[in-house]
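One-letter codes give the sequence; the fold follows as tokens. An example follows:
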Amino acid sequence: MGLYLVSGLSGPGRYYRSGVPAGADFVQIWAASSMAKQGQAALVYDDDALSRAEQAVIGGEARFNLPWHYPPPFLWLILPVSSLNYFLALALWLFLPLGALMLLLYKIFPDRLTVWLSLAFIATAETLFYGQGLFLIALLLGGGLLLLELHPWLGGLLFSLLLAYKPHLGILLPVALLAGGRWRVLGALVAAGAILAVVSAWAFGPDIWLAFWRDFQRMKSEMAQAHLWDRMPSVLGAVRLPGGSEALAMTLQILTALGAVAALWWVWRGSSSLPVRGAVLVVATLLVHPHVFDYDLTLLLLPLAWVAGEERDPPWSRLKFLMLGLVWLLPFLNLISVELARIHLAPLLLAAFLIYLLTEATGGRRAATAIASGQGHGSFGKNNHNLHNYCNR
């Protein structure tokens, strides 16, 4: 991680030594904020107009063109960004949510290695290098889950903010809430989302939603032609990277998505605790969407902490230790397999992790039944290790 930051500081102007703009993907956020403040909000969905604004941010001769595909409410939420110096805004964008996420992870698993291992996670470095907002997404998701029972309306608000930024990473939230009967959380999510939609239409004009819809239709075809398969650790990317057909890739992606949704529904319909429900939600989300990127694997910090934090006494089983090690190494192993063999290992490892979580959830249900009948003690996913244990630490 430090190498990425050093390379950024060492580069000329606002560029890394490699020629990539410092903050990379954050350039479009600062540029879009600037355009919205100047009354040009709808033009953020115009590639040429946005490219000119991005070029004004980074300077230099190389043309920079990163399209804007985010929903209008997110544009309203980032309006203050361009009021700050670019580097100050970038630092706040990355390190404020990173610090808060580290506190959240430590609350889940209060061990001195939690923060260090989280910072050493390869996907953490990728998020920092690309200037992406995965720390914020993980914080909103993890915080929302922790608030499900004690403060459901606040939890729903956090989920709504997540969907306003990266809807594809919250695509399974409504499914999970429906399966779990979390009606107040779901109501808060819908209400907050409607308010954000109305406010953004009021701030920028209703035409911005038409521009977003046209961009959404165009984006679907663009993603299919993007050929960024080496950056997409999904089932779709795994099949297309070595030259597999689009039909085969989509078929396997759909089958995987159906299996992941079924697993999510089963777990959230049952009596599993927060760690197993949250871990299954994250892993299923990464398996369901065909266009996840390598930095999206940052979300795995949440299930790593949840699984590590469960059942600390007695000590971890060998299988649990192996699974945690493989998942922590997953972004690195996937990076190496892509570079050396043009193969994505991530979908296979994620599927194995999901199966592990399901087997442990099954054991937890049996243990809960035994406890209810006075015949035994719980294991991973046991009911007496629930949300209140985390909130009262």
